[in-house]
## 1
Amino acid sequence: MSAASVLVATPQSMHFAEALPLRSGASIRAYDLSYETYGELNADKSNAVLICHALNASHHVAGVYVDERGEVIPKSEGWWDSMIGPDKPVDTKRFFVIGVNNLGSCFGSTGPMQINPDTNEIYGADFPVVTVQDWVSAQARLLDALGIQTLAAVMGGSLGGMQALAWTLQYPERVRHAVVVASAPNLTAENIAFNEVARRAIVTDPDFHGGHFYQHGVLPKRGLRIARMIGHITYLSDDVMNEKFGRQLRRAVTETATEGAPFRYTTQDIEFEIESYLRYQGDKFSEYFDANTYLLITRALDYFDPASAFGGNLSRALAQATAKFLLVSFTTDWRFSPARSREIVKALLDNQRDVSYAEIDAPHGHDAFLLDDDRYMGVVRSYFQSKVAA
Amino acid sequence: MSAASVLVATPQSMHFAEALPLRSGASIRAYDLSYETYGELNADKSNAVLICHALNASHHVAGVYVDERGEVIPKSEGWWDSMIGPDKPVDTKRFFVIGVNNLGSCFGSTGPMQINPDTNEIYGADFPVVTVQDWVSAQARLLDALGIQTLAAVMGGSLGGMQALAWTLQYPERVRHAVVVASAPNLTAENIAFNEVARRAIVTDPDFHGGHFYQHGVLPKRGLRIARMIGHITYLSDDVMNEKFGRQLRRAVTETATEGAPFRYTTQDIEFEIESYLRYQGDKFSEYFDANTYLLITRALDYFDPASAFGGNLSRALAQATAKFLLVSFTTDWRFSPARSREIVKALLDNQRDVSYAEIDAPHGHDAFLLDDDRYMGVVRSYFQSKVAA
């Protein structure tokens, strides 16, 4: 396919020489942020939309990559390509959209896989613990460097939605609109529990070496696989799993089955399609994701809790926010259920803020925020057309 | 404490010299079953109640153990001691109650930790795959040996409930009542997915050695810990986790916290109480549970599906059952939700069977079936008094 008709993305990098103080008390001396932009910044720099990513995503939000001959690289679409692009709900003909890879991630921004300038060794487990607030601070510096004072909107799903919410609290004067999708004001005990099991799987993998596996020439793939499998279960709904996989046996199983004995009767080999799917997801993930990044990002999720500084009172916490809000949740999302979004809506209404809220009836669970659902896309499109662009 | 006033349990063992043919086509040449009995078998042998256990339990259902001086051993209560005993819902003054450890388990009955008589080596991963139906066949032989033709009731929770249901299909003429608590007619894709992640954690532990770790003098504790942590999350409800742990920080964390920095900012150490709790559960479990047994029992769960031989039609499958039924489910159980129990109720009603059903409003999730809830205990007590003893 020729790239003429599609949005072509070009990753960029920005260096920051000034140390970034972190919430933990530590700081990052110098760092780089990978980012991409789509569309054109207008003359008064009022049409910028910042997209914040979730656990395993990156700055490559929209568009495709092309090879040296100008041909589109297959499957190189950005992770929110259904949402962002020309004539899409977040229309890049109208908005200047910025995707940025967070500090501590593993897709180009400074993170555990890179050299610690203080020691000239790979950071590994020594990379400082970063929080949602730290990411927002780093993103704000990127906007400074791009000459953008005020965002038309900040937007994200899941952990990205937490960053959007944090923006409205840390830099209320710099955000006109916040779009918070499939998110929550903090993690529940169950959310933390799933994160903790995933972290234990990684940390107790003998190839983890206390987080300094890079020097040993190994990767804790076993742990990463388990972490991803656990995560994946929580991203899907019970319904969509039953619909897609149910109790369906893997083809190889049904082909070799003898009459009256539908199974292979094995504890270690695959019997059911769902097993095959999960193993594939785990294997794929373990090939490209950094184990220390997984620990850092799940911890950032655990720590996020804007209400904690206000005795647990979310309404008081959100009093600082002056942006207008769109919140979206999905009925079958049991990771960040609609009730969690409604907590945010209520706290904003308690402060007489301008809030739109859509609860989308979608079967896909938490993953729905990444999918191309008509009603969901329609709600975001309307919001950007009627409110953000107004 | 003296044992005079309490029910004292005495584990027994029964040897079976005749090979047991298994569903898989394999067979177990000879085997032992550990069991316990409470109360007295009446003259016409009509008051026997068989209790079937779930994933990690055993034949030690009720009562306590005493040491050689006759003193009660602390914390030696059976796993369903709140349910079974003198004057308890299943009253051992009236009923002769039998607990039996299933084949393939690790509490005395023949299983992967024992010697394979064919090879004189520890079974390990070579222990044949067993199904719920195989367990029922083995339990039936134990009843034969005890001279019991007909059970007043067969009863179990979770996987134990599946065995109770299977009893009514395999030996309809031998069961007067079936009490099926917090169970399901089969696993959903999500249930299988959680089992599969747990199994992968065990199998990919380098200390697993393909299931022959006994010869290597190691135990795959890392994998068992992860498996148990995952399981534990699914046993509890989101609500009860929030109530018990919420976002509460571990005491050590709050004590060392500095003003404005409530956390220790660490990815590998414990911050939240829920993490501490899960790690403790995982550690404890990995000390006593056999890894091959975990694989076998989760597979038995995966395979159970009485409707599959009837084109997925549960009503047709349950037409074979002639017992009277009590089904109990718990509102916050998301592992085997009330809807799954209602599927069984509906299928039995389609066959004009005598069915009682109680949906207990309890906050504890799947674990509720093991807890001492007044309404739950009351329902079982009434059923045994008014129906089973009638």
Note: The longest strand of chain A covers residues 31-38.
## 2
Amino acid sequence: MASKSFYAIISGAGSGTGRATALRFAQAYPVVLLARKPESYNSIVAEIKQAGGQAFGLTADATDETAVNAAFESIKKILPGSKLAAAVYNVNGGFAMRPFLELKREELDASLDAAPKGFFTFAQKTLPLLLESVPESPHPPTLIISGATASIKGSALFGSFAAGKFALRALGQSLAREFGPKGVHVSHAIIDGAIDTPESKDWVANNGAEDGKISPDAFIKIAETYWHLHTQHRSAFTQEIDIRPYVERY
Amino acid sequence: MASKSFYAIISGAGSGTGRATALRFAQAYPVVLLARKPESYNSIVAEIKQAGGQAFGLTADATDETAVNAAFESIKKILPGSKLAAAVYNVNGGFAMRPFLELKREELDASLDAAPKGFFTFAQKTLPLLLESVPESPHPPTLIISGATASIKGSALFGSFAAGKFALRALGQSLAREFGPKGVHVSHAIIDGAIDTPESKDWVANNGAEDGKISPDAFIKIAETYWHLHTQHRSAFTQEIDIRPYVERY
Amino acid sequence: MASKSFYAIISGAGSGTGRATALRFAQAYPVVLLARKPESYNSIVAEIKQAGGQAFGLTADATDETAVNAAFESIKKILPGSKLAAAVYNVNGGFAMRPFLELKREELDASLDAAPKGFFTFAQKTLPLLLESVPESPHPPTLIISGATASIKGSALFGSFAAGKFALRALGQSLAREFGPKGVHVSHAIIDGAIDTPESKDWVANNGAEDGKISPDAFIKIAETYWHLHTQHRSAFTQEIDIRPYVERY
Amino acid sequence: MASKSFYAIISGAGSGTGRATALRFAQAYPVVLLARKPESYNSIVAEIKQAGGQAFGLTADATDETAVNAAFESIKKILPGSKLAAAVYNVNGGFAMRPFLELKREELDASLDAAPKGFFTFAQKTLPLLLESVPESPHPPTLIISGATASIKGSALFGSFAAGKFALRALGQSLAREFGPKGVHVSHAIIDGAIDTPESKDWVANNGAEDGKISPDAFIKIAETYWHLHTQHRSAFTQEIDIRPYVERY
């Protein structure tokens, strides 16, 4: 099978979208999971293996360039000769909801570290690999970025978080325009529901309507759209997409 | 099979996107094709039948309310007891590229007739049927609207065409917000390549790059994304999407 | 004074923005007011005259091409030899807030008549006059269009109104791009407060906060921004602008 | 005169927009100019004084929190008892136009330092002062941010620059929503012409058309719009505005 020699990588694998994307892409490829702590990926790796797939967890803070570099070196040993078909940047961080005058500069820094800076490193590592895969990849090599409502709207009290997410989208647009014509599909997805962070776990979104909060099952559905983006033919790329629960007011 | 008792309808079936959508949805449902002239759907109906699917052509000008009403009456006889799973509004018309002071009011009228007015009638006919299908449809009942770059950008010389397409998108947004919470998925897709009209047939888009113009094959790929929209779970709806060739400058 | 031989015209003079714009532009130019009924402009004409300005009311339904043509013929007699410096399209109509399946096609038609169709006629009459004024006008000849929140967002229940307003903005963008390089400043202003229609008169917007609803005085402030648009130098044109009360949530 | 006891501050005074804004606001207020080097403000301070205004230059790198803090301490001594009426953040930096895989992480950092980070510090210093001025300021206290086309479009090769500018706009939107209802006008202006940086000085924009590049005179016109933003009444605030030469293609 051609696709046997291709793999996918997901940075920020520990969140709902991360886990779901890993499960979905593992149906087609061996999957490498990057997360800050083994606790974030261990159970997902086990879940994938149980389902008959291949998965590998690597520990690296997406904002730590050296750790990310080391992770990519490890991949060469874990999957020798395998090529990169899809890369997903799904890192969250720097979430703060607070009056501006109470925000600390460190909170802005954390948002910028997790979003544009961490992605910058990830993209510089993955794009050369994706370019190499263009001639043989079963689907156009794909780089997917997870965004949020804060990627397009700077709401009151969400300034520092939105700053990171806006910047991330700027990079995504620029890369889509630069690498699309070279055959690499770069796509930015706005997940417009309860924000996918541990902090939001206890929110009651959309008044608790059925399917109104993005549930673990719902993340699986989001992952179907990620997979669809990956399988789009180069004559019909989508560079930006919104995904939200049917009850979401927007 | 549950889906045996559901059907899809495509208005404006004669264009590249229309044909491709018909072929794709015919893999799952009997398909009703609406077009102004039998020549527009006859060969597609034949193609679908040859592939083992079911298809029916009906002649109706989308801008003629009476003709559209009659078509929906016919469907009840052709597919008795069958329910509507998906409706696609893909009508083009009113394309004019001309200095504003040379435009005739009739050209603006033609654009508004083909876009917001024709869609208004189509949506008033199909939404009650789609609402009825919510409890049993194999996928969330779906109303898809085909837009163009002119749906979001009023370029010089494209004013009258953009007026229709902007208005169509306004209706799409409003319906997505009103009917989404009721379980009907309304989605607006911008096909951002050489415009899908007979008039554009001879354009050499994107300097003739391979896959750079939306070829008949490319329309098939676009239809895959339409099908994906239809199969999205209600916890992960996409209301607006752009689809463009990898070489498209935007 | 050079500006003595220039005039301004306001279509839809009867609303809050229309009246305020007339008063402001009358400080510099004779002003022609177009409205459907004399009651809409009589008191404004009186107000301007009392303040020492010149104003003329003409009765014409903006959606009636023949009536609009006749009005422009009248202007030649009223202000012989005077040139057009600024034209403002401020017509409202077709406002309906209603579930889509209860809307009548006539309501959509009314919205399209008042917005893109009425403006089309107005623009075809005024743009040739504005082009003629480029060499001598004290400020770049200007065509200003009044929009609303519904110009950029199709909210639930506002579909038909938004269809008209979106289409109007499409024309505005196209004309800005076509006529800007010729020296005519086309600008679209979104008045994002309680909608400027007689129907909205009794709304309590923004919980009744001081300056939270667009009061008659507030419209005067909006008119200052319209005047500023008119006086922008051609090296610094604004083609789209939002104007909203400080308490407005958006 | 009430306005005697109010002042304005401009960070990034050395550029075309900075100089022009300083000259314009100096017609109403004493003006404090912040720039990295005295060479950037010395001649502007002289120009303002010659015209009969008051101006003070302070040396501070906008990305250096300590230096900015010191500058604000100095202002208390230079203008004792005076209150802040308007603050303009006009800092450029981190401009790079380069294939993504050749970009260095330091170039992204420089863009983020100059845009969201520098502005964060500036806004945390100025917003408390602007809030204090609400009751007495001759016009609503105003915080204006200078953006660029890269604030809303991530073009190919402009990724790192756009990342900073997008993030800056995110903060601007959030602050507009948080501080508008408190009476402080926060506004983000996109100057959509040849980019206002020393590096762009030699570009031939818009094929050299008259007024096609933003000339020193044109910047004066842009400054008129900044001044207009400052003088908008709180019932008619503009939070985002585009300003571009009449010949600009967009």
Note: Chain D has one domain: 6-243.
